[in-house]
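Input for the complex:
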Amino acid sequence: MNGFNGNNFGEGDGAKGVNGFSGNGVNGHNLHSGHGNGGGNGSRSPRRALITGITGQDGSYLAELLLAKGYEVHGLIRRSSTFSTGRIDHIYDDPHWENANLRLHYGDLTDSTGLRRIIEEVEPHEVYNLGAQSHVRVSFDQPEYTADVVATGTLRLFEAIRDYIAISRNSPKIYQACSSEMFGSSSPPQNEQTPFHPRSPYAVSKVAGYHYGVNYREAYGLFISNGILFNHESPRRGGTFVTRKITRALTRIKLGLQETLFLGNLDAKRDWGFAGDYVEAMWRMLQHDRPDDFVVATGETHSVREFLEEAANVLEMDWERVVEFDPRYLRPAEVDALLGDASKIRETLGWTPTVTFSGLVRMMVEHDLNLAEREQVLADAGHVMRRQASGDE
Ligand code: NAP
Ligand code: GDD
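Predicted:
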């Protein structure tokens, strides 16, 4: 569980992990660095998955789903000077344990040598490419870096898998995380036939990743499915995306821990679903008999203002008294309206969302109210500073 600041409440110094074992490595985790047998000392699991972006929102839900289905799950993790494993601490096993089913490997989508080594070591049956610099606003500040990770990083991964297939008898299925941002200014509703008109360096890079997927399918026969996912949120959503920024700030304001919430464009409309539902769609795409492209969405759209209203209603607050406009959160080019038509995945793979818009908002508000209450206890006891919430990029 993340604290308000992205830290783990009650976390120690990193010498001891959340599971109580001590050791080196990230957050007390011993990262896998051996060879050949990635699943402990026993025989290898018949179903192995590799997830890039395992420390992110979607990666954590997907890892949970795959572990529950009996997969041996391997995750690519970036070296960081601070802990980045908060979302997966609860499912992490000590790799010294023979039956550990979740393994982490240091790697980066900008490092092709490492990607090749990890793929040869893990020998995955399924690869989920979720790693990305995923913040649209930040992509305007860091366009080259975003392209390197999101576009070229995807290409590096596909090339590593293509070479692995040539030297092994294994041919992994690949899920490529595309985005509804690729539709950009194309009018809603958007489906698999809608033309792309990307409006940010992030979206342009995702379009490149999409086309690399189609091209490697056609040219080399790789099983690559492109998931064109519309916005999906959860209590694990990063704090600088608008939904989580709102639910964190309103709950803190409610408890007197913060005074103001600064936001940009309240008129933008998004098709918001629950991340837990969307990782199920990713998995279903790789169980299909052939690779394809699928839109994943709820078919409902709401403005940022409506999200604010819904969250404030749950808290019985008047949001207009606490929200202020800050132009720094505007984007040089905005995506005004996204609304997905997910008929294809519903009819082909039987996928439908289970969480409604109001259910999603309530889930996030209740989670963040609980976090704020814990923060308040710590603040009252003098263990943490009372502070205005951190801003947004
Ligand atoms: P997220 O929470 O921002 O997670 C991104 C993940 O990518 C993190 O694990 C991050 O690692 C990792 N990462 C960043 N740079 C990397 C690099 N250079 N090499 C390897 N890994 C790197 O994103 P998310 O919401 O889970 O989204 C997952 C994927 O779906 C992303 O590709 C995103 O663009 C795409 N997508 C998301 C949505 C949505 O609404 N959530 C919709 C459509 C598409 P750190 O933890 O170290 O930062
Ligand atoms: N982040 C943010 N912060 N957005 C704000 C704010 C603010 O203070 N105020 C208004 N917004 C508006 C943005 O201008 C945008 O129109 C909308 O809220 C949603 O912004 P985000 O939550 O940052 O998400 P996004 O739609 O730009 O991108 C997310 O969804 C994409 C799928 O459509 C990300 O998860 C992308 O990685 C993903 O591909």
